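Deviations from the work plan: none for this task. Representative record:
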Amino acid sequence: MSGEHSNSFDIRGIWRVFWVLFAITAVEFVIALAIPEAFMAKPIKNAIYIALTLLKAFYIVAYFMHLKFEKINLIYSILLPTIFVLGVIAALMYESDYWFTLR
Amino acid sequence: MSSHSSPALSTSGKLWDGGNEPFGASYGKLMMWFFLLSDAFTFSALLLAYAALRFSSLSWPVPDDVFAAVPFIHGHFPLVFVGIMTFILIMSSVTMVLAVEAGHRGARNEVVKWMFWTILGGIAFLGCQAWEWSHLHHDGAWWGSNPFVNADGTPGQVNFTNLFFTITGFHGFHVFSGVVINIIVTIMTMAGVFDRRGTYETIEKIGLYWHFVDLVWVFVFTFFYLI
């Protein structure tokens, strides 16, 4: 089984992913600390943070957890159920007006 | 189940007739993935509860004011300490992949070396978290007590501290479990268990768990400290 994996786990590739994660985190810090909110509104900052977080999640899951190199069955059976999380988000957003006026 | 017996390891080429691994992964690795999926739902539920409570509140404490302390230095340094914690955890994820990579080559001493650094990173992260918790506790923050004012100057809700200690605590518990399991598999590596088994897949399985802990921290970092 080690034969089919040996191509995707190279030491240089591992460090490249590390530098990508490091760079994304650095960008998040620059946005948080160096860019004033008068220049970039908080909702825009938040949208960028979430996009960068999902990008980091992709790199961790795809390369560190090696999911990108697994069989397509395995990839789908892990990724598709996360639709349920999106479902909860949709439900909460649908209810949000009610929550807000309740308080 | 007992009514028919399928020939062991038939090489029919069909995907679902038994005798092969449709997912191309061993039972243990597959179950680790499904466990992590269920754990992802747990953390999603916690973070969504945080989002729902936060955005249904009129105001909320400012993270940059709450998390602005660094050990041994006096002053206001938002995000610096949590940045160090994030770096430590990403770094320990890298050393874990390097341990898995060494395991694929069957290089026992390298596996032990990288596992040692991974365990050290995990312990360093837990130490940082312990310092942060005790610092916040010293300021009067705990479950059911929130000394921090909201952004608009009104008294802060206990929801803030309740969610902070519950979610970082649940994550810290995962880190702690990971460190314990990492120590166990490192001892097993040193004892030559995986050489006798002929595979270092156990390192790969605990590696998946360790990366997941890192993954959760990426989200906790964004939602608690940045947004």
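Chain B has one domain: 27-226.
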